[in-house]
């Protein structure tokens, strides 16, 4: 319960048992000079008017009732005593001047025992205007000041209203016409007690959110006093009487609530703004404490304070809510001015958007902060600047995070860590780290605003687009290049390409090109490793030993071993790589066949044709077993084998037509090289070559531009270079 405060006694309104306290001023016995006498004479001839006191007391009353600072009752007592003593001095000087005029007019000095004119005037005023019934104390015999001190607010207001009505009636009856200072003195006492009552109500508001329990009866009485004052002073009087001027206690109560909210919010870690060296932890703790204080206070208002005011029709919840909202906004504005760094800016934005604005801030769904009519916690320009600063720091941070990912992968290379096999595929942490990085920042930004989420997505996409080429180059130049690592990074690029594009459509399209380029680089490196292993083995093709030895088996063994790695690669890039291996084997075999070191005649030529057909079958069976879908490669070697072993020269035309229609990239030089293997006569060679040339032109015209892409994907002969010596051989034959 709120306990009454001890107050220094001051001038009080009392009963007529002690009339001299309010009616008889103490005379000043100091000697006066001639100058003072002249001044007193001027004061006597021109007494102060009532209007001057009215204006002065009106201004003083308004400042005290709705001041910018909270006043306690002790301050009211001291100011009341000071003003009363000042008025006493004015009255004494006025009465001394009046007494000095009497001897000058009659020539006789007044008797010391005779009552002074000033004293009689005040007594007459008391008997004529403010009688004993108006100064009668309360039911318990207490003065207005005692009632205010003991916080009997309604009783004090009723007594003040009774005294105010008496003064207004006395003024209307012209009881104070001869001595306006007497009226001003009494009016001042009423006004000061009104101000004391307002100060006590402000003190009650300050103590409401303290650690003690809420005195519901006192808060209800405070609300009734405010309502009673509004009914007693509905509007300013037409004659400008400051006594009946509205005190605006409702506005004073609202101002007190706002000041109380500001004090409680500003006391949270006051003067302890988090420093740069501490990072975001201190700011997070400060905001957590701020949220705790605001949450506890608003819970107390909603559950205890609001019901106490509700009986008097006071909107306490709305006023307190707006007061704390404004105080929190001001505090955040101060913190925003000093916020630096990505983490601290995000802590501030996240607290404003998710913690304070979240549905569970007050601890219960029924106590959720309303979105209306509260203004934004931070002004739009302040919020926009915070987001801009955050994204600037975020861009630097994300680039730094990608640099850390590269360094982490390099440390794994240096440690010789082999990639894991998860769910049948080679796996490295690169894709996981990038996914976590993007998801973390995008999710965090999306929790604040959709605009910040979109900006963060663009930052991540741009940073990843720069990271992929740097990472590819760093790996390919390192000593950690191996088939498992290459296959694992192919998987990582495929995961990034498919998942990021599917999860964030419209943002990561620009990553398609660098990721595809990186995948191709890793696949090319895989193929180059296989080529270095099998390239020497192809030199035995179309040699004398080739007719009797299975020179193709070592090649196919290495191909099968290589395909074992492709089993741990994602299906699409694995099929692409196997297709390239299949194409490479067929192409290298044909390249060796079209530039043989030895020429076959008679039986050897027929044996070579049969061996080539067997090799073609072995290649086709092997790649079909590995899962290659490049069936279009199965015709090339058998066609060349058929031309090489054909007995009927007229059938060679048919085999050439099949070869040219199956492989549009074949050229005149390739046809000449194939015919050179058969060793036909010059006339037959020229006739077949001309037919092949006509057929190549017809195929080119029939293909058209729409099949350009398909044709480019089916390049076989176009990558086979024919030796210049074939022209000499063809001419000689």
Plain-language structure description:
The protein folds into 4 domains: 32-107 and 115-263, no CATH class; 270-378; 384-522, Tetracycline Repressor, domain 2 (Orthogonal Bundle); 541-732, Exocyst complex component Sec6, C-terminal domain (Tetracycline Repressor, domain 2, Orthogonal Bundle), CATH 1.10.357.70. The model is unreliable at 1-136, 273-278, 706-711 and 726-733 (pLDDT under 50). Helix content is 67%, strand content 1%. Strand 1 and strand 2 form a beta hairpin. Helix 11 runs parallel beside helix 13, helix 13 crosses helix 14 and helix 20 runs antiparallel to helix 21 (603-626). It has helices spanning 20-23, 34-45, 50-65, 73-106, 117-128, 144-149, 153-172, 180-208, 216-232, 249-266, 281-310, 316-338, 342-355, 380-414, 429-446, 450-476, 483-503, 512-534, 552-566, 571-594, 603-626, 636-645, 651-662, 668-678, 682-703, 708-713, 725-732, and strands at residues 420-422, 425-427. With 733 residues, it is mostly helical. The protein is built from 27 helices and 2 strands. The protein is rod-shaped. The chain has a two-stranded antiparallel ribbon.
Helix-strand blueprint:
Elements: H1 20-23, H2 34-45, H3 50-65, H4 73-106, H5 117-128, H6 144-149, H7 153-172, H8 180-208, H9 216-232, H10 249-266, H11 281-310, H12 316-338, H13 342-355, H14 380-414, E1 420-422, E2 425-427, H15 429-446, H16 450-476, H17 483-503, H18 512-534, H19 552-566, H20 571-594, H21 603-626, H22 636-645, H23 651-662, H24 668-678, H25 682-703, H26 708-713, H27 725-732
Antiparallel strand pairs: 1-2
Helix pairs in contact: 2-4, 3-8, 4-8, 7-8, 7-9, 8-10, 9-11, 10-12, 11-12, 11-13, 13-14, 14-15, 14-16, 15-16, 15-17, 16-18, 17-18, 18-20, 19-21, 20-21, 21-22, 22-23, 22-24, 23-25, 24-25, 24-27
